[in-house]
Write a structure and sequence with these properties.
This protein is of the alpha/beta class. It has eight helices and seven strands. The protein binds nicotinamide-adenine-dinucleotide.
């Protein structure tokens, strides 16, 4: 059977943990050469070695680091076919607007939104030149729904990622570059575990709203990213790709 990403080069930010790590492994299984951009030097080299890929230390808020990441993919493996712009944070200081200070607001915007702008800006010229490419930006279900348990900067940043992805998808459609926003529901990763460790009540409140009654596993998001990355999604661009266990479709959930 043909592997779905055979011969493709995929850049994945935040590839050392959670959704990003599961996607590194999944893409490699499907034949991709994977380039991981992350801050986590301790894990990065080991993961890259395991999948026969490349780790590049990269702070996604730095234009220099991001440009160097995509240049490394091109120089090492010859192309930039897939960009999974996925690194993101959800720190406890980002809370209700009433309690979130400007520094916390700005930090989250930088890591979650400015980073996606930088990664798309770096990836697009390679893909336009090739006449082909798939960009997947990780937004969230909170980009399309309001949460009473607020993380105001996080939600706003993901709304920005969704809008930016849609516009880029439209702008570059005729140049062969597809841009989609992956909108996960809650996924069982360190990011979510950290958030809910301090507040079990918040975790319980979230579960009530998920028809499936459970959080997603990282591999379920990796499979969704794989679909968007490969040619099976060839007529999809500028989409809001919700993989949320039914949250966005629910008025009430079964108990
Ligand atoms: P995670 O915390 O498990 O992993 C995030 C990775 O990003 C880590 O390896 C970390 O080192 C890296 N990272 C953080 N800041 C960085 C920076 N400045 N530069 C480079 N790398 C950096 O997170 P996750 O749960 O896998 O989340 C991945 C993405 O999915 C994020 O954008 C997140 O907002 C989004 N998301 C997560 C959930 C969820 O419930 N976990 C739901 C919806 C969307």
């Amino acid at each position: 059977m043909t592997r779905r990403l055979e011969g493709r080069v995929a850049v994945i930010t935040g590839g050392c943990s959670g959704i990003g790590l599961a996607t590194v492994e999944r893409f490699a299984e499907e034949g991709a050469r994977v380039v991981i951009g992350d801050l986590d030097d301790a894990r990065g080299d080991e993961i890259a070695q395991r999948v026969d890929g490349l780790f590049v230390h990269c702070d996604v808020t730095s234009k220099g680091d991001v440009d160097a990441l995509f240049a490394a993919a091109k120089n090492t493996f010859g192309s930039v076919d897939v960009a999974f712009n996925n690194a993101g944070i959800s720190p406890p200081e980002d809370d209700s607007i009433l309690d979130t200070d400007l520094d916390a607001w700005r930090r989250v915007q930088e890591v979650n939104l400015t980073s996606v702008y930088l990664c798309c800006k770096a990836a697009l010229p390679y893909m336009i030149e090739q006449g082909k490419g798939s960009i997947i930006n990780t937004a969230s279900f909170v980009a399309v729904m309001g949460a009473a348990t607020s993380q105001i900067s996080y939600s706003a940043s993901k709304g920005g990622v969704l809008s930016m992805s849609r516009e880029l998808g439209v702008q570059f459609a005729r140049q062969g570059v597809r841009v989609n926003a992956l909108c996960p529901g809650p996924v069982n990763t360190p990011l979510l575990q950290e958030l809910f460790a301090k507040d079990e009540e918040a975790a319980r409140r979230r579960l009530v709203h998920i028809p499936m009654g459970r959080f997603a596993e990282p591999r379920e998001m990796a499979n969704a990213a794989l679909f968007l990355a490969c040619d099976e999604s060839s007529f999809m661009t500028a989409s809001t790709f919700l993989v949320d266990g039914g949250i966005s479709g629910a008025y009430v959930t079964p108990v």
